[in-house]
Design a protein that fits this description.
This protein is an alpha+beta fold and about 240 residues long. Helices cover about 20% and strands about 35% of the residues. The termini are far apart. Pfam families: Furin-like_2, TSP1_spondin.
Length: about 240
């Protein structure tokens, strides 16, 4: 170390020299040696650079190098990211993943093997033939299921998601579309006709009841009122039948 030590340093250094750079750092900063050609220069940083991990001591905080296969690490024995060509597993960098695990080339990690999972089968569909449900005796019915978990690279592949089988049904005639439409139109017209007929009958009934009521009221008005007076029989003189 050059004996010329300066106290008025820049860049976070607590003490420094013209030849070696920082010799110590201000509180909470990390001291790290950077190589420039054949020379090492001390610098003070707020965090350790890639490929280094930090350790704190009472008198100084230092940055130390990770292992050769490790790109970033938490400690020397625990890597958080591996260099190209290595896969991370439990803090270690491996060229090949252990049994039961597979290499994920996207994350460069060893991960668990995931097998495909499918849902339960749906109920069988109605028996059909060429898209129709009538006009045949032998047809086909189908059932389906969904994939709920897709497999990883080394996982078991997914099974079929649909099945069909032959089916036998009682033959029934297919109603022609034109005839069926005509029948539906006739039924609609008949229904409207019946409704109109019932409406007319109800209107006639109301009119007849109203006419009868008016007739009774007119008859009551035309009848003369009875006059009140003495009984004629009471005014007649007694007849003498003795002679």
């Amino acid at each position: 170390v050059h004996p010329n030590v300066s106290q008025g340093c820049q860049g976070g250094c607590a003490t420094c020299s013209d030849y070696n750079g920082c010799l110590s750092c201000k509180p909470r900063l990390f001291f790290v040696l950077e190589r420039i050609g054949m020379k090492q220069i001390g610098v003070c940083l707020s965090s350790c650079p890639s490929g280094y991990y930090g350790t704190r001591y009472p008198d100084i905080n230092k940055c130390a190098k990770c292992k050769a296969d490790c790109d970033t690490c938490f400690t020397r024995n625990f890597c958080t990211k591996c260099k190209s060509g290595f896969y991370l597993y439990s803090g270690k960098c491996l060229e090949k993943c252990p049994d039961g695990l597979e290499a994920n080339n996207h994350t460069m990690e060893c991960t668990s093997i995931v097998h495909c999972e499918a849902s339960e089968w749906s109920p069988w569909s109605p028996c059909t033939k060429k898209g129709k449900t009538c006009g045949f005796k032998r047809g086909n019915e189908v059932r389906v299921r969904e994939i709920v978990q897709h497999p990883s690279a080394r996982g078991k592949p997914c099974p079929a998601t649909s099945e069909n089988r032959k089916c036998i049904v009682q033959r029934k005639r297919c109603q022609k579309e034109g005839k069926g439409k005509k029948n539906r139109e006739e039924k609609r017209k008949k229904s409207n006709k019946d409704e109109n007929k019932e409406s007319r009958q109800e209107s006639k009934g109301r009119a007849a009841r109203r006419q009868n009521q008016e007739q009774r009221e007119n008859n009551n008005k035309m009848q003369p009122k009875k006059r009140k007076g003495p009984n004629k029989e009471e005014n007649l003189a007694p007849v003498d039948t003795a002679h």
